[in-house]
Write a structure and sequence with these properties.
- This protein is mainly beta and 219 residues long.
- It contains three helices and 15 strands.
- It is globular and about 40 Å long.
- The mean pLDDT is 96.
- Bound molecules: zinc ion.
Length: 219
């Protein structure tokens, strides 16, 4: 897996399906995303999440939001089953920033959940709709999304094996009104800071601690 900046990750399923999540468009000052992939997930139609134009190849584009709602996407591509769970981009039912799709990606041996621009804590119904979550990609920067404290609450409600922070301030987006990952980090006893580049997610019990591991990626 690799963090490409903001809410964009690239990951490859056991059978080789190449996935990119929430690519940002060229106006976002991270290094442009130009990799080849098979599937792109788009949690909602904002420029920092739906910049599919730069991607190489002819990937399938799975858009969670259709019209003003989260569509119930259910697609199986190769060994990955994609489904969406409805949520909002704010804590007022989407009245300020609209709907947001949570992508659940089930692949052999691992379920990855991408929360998009989630704007609120999760109720029980949403937690059970998401179901099993091994690896959680969670926004922590606040302002447009949940902040570090609420993000920690969301992690505790979903109980993943690994929670990876995203959508936080870095040196690339110094002027954005979001925070760094510090408030989120402060919620945990142990946090692993990943070096830039690719990282491996190995869910073997002897590789992970018994409690949720919290990782902060770098680019
Ligand atoms: Zn965003």
């Amino acid at each position: 897996m690799r963090w490409l900046g903001h809410a964009a990750f690239s990951l490859v399923s056991p059978n080789g399906v190449r996935i990119v999540t929430d690519p940002f468009d060229s106006s976002v000052p991270y290094p442009p995303i130009t990799i080849e992939c098979d599937v792109v997930t788009v949690s909602h139609e904002h420029f920092d999440h739906n910049g599919v134009a730069g991607l190489k190849g002819s990937p399938r584009i799975l858009r969670a939001v259709v019209g003003k709602e989260v569509a119930s996407t259910l697609e199986t591509i190769g060994d990955v089953r994609f489904r969406t769970v409805a949520s909002s981009h704010d804590d007022t039912g989407g009245s300020q920033r609209g709907p947001n799709g949570i992508f659940v990606m089930e692949m052999p041996g691992m379920t990855v959940v991408h929360l998009g621009d989630l704007g609120h804590a999760l109720d029980e119904k949403t937690v059970s709709s998401i179901g099993k979550c091994d690896v959680l990609l969670v926004p922590v920067g606040g302002h447009y999304t949940i902040d570090g404290k609420t993000a920690a609450q969301v992690v505790r409600s979903l109980k993943p094996k690994v929670a990876i922070a995203m959508h936080f301030k870095t040196s690339y987006i110094k002027d954005w009104p979001i925070t760094g990952p510090e408030d989120f980090e402060a919620e945990w006893k142990f946090v692993k800071r990943l070096p830039p580049g690719e990282f491996e997610v190995d869910l073997s019990p002897n590789k992970l601690s018994a409690e949720t591991e919290v990782w902060i990626p770098a680019i």
